[in-house]
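Input record (one chain):
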Amino acid sequence: AMRLADAGLHLVICARSVQALEAVADYAKQRGGQTVTVAADLTTAAGVNTLLEAANGLDIGLLVASAGYG
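The corresponding structure, as predicted from the sequence alone:
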């Protein structure tokens, strides 16, 4: 996400950790980027719906699925 922010892309980022999301959002903002942050657990239907609702209506040009474990 940080490399994408360096390239000037606007980001929609999702993670379970609000702290991690805020760190990436701050990084992007310092570089003039815009970031939508979504705190959700994508292993649950509710988490997936939360992300879909946050991204609804946005023009998404690139999707990077980089889920971790743990």
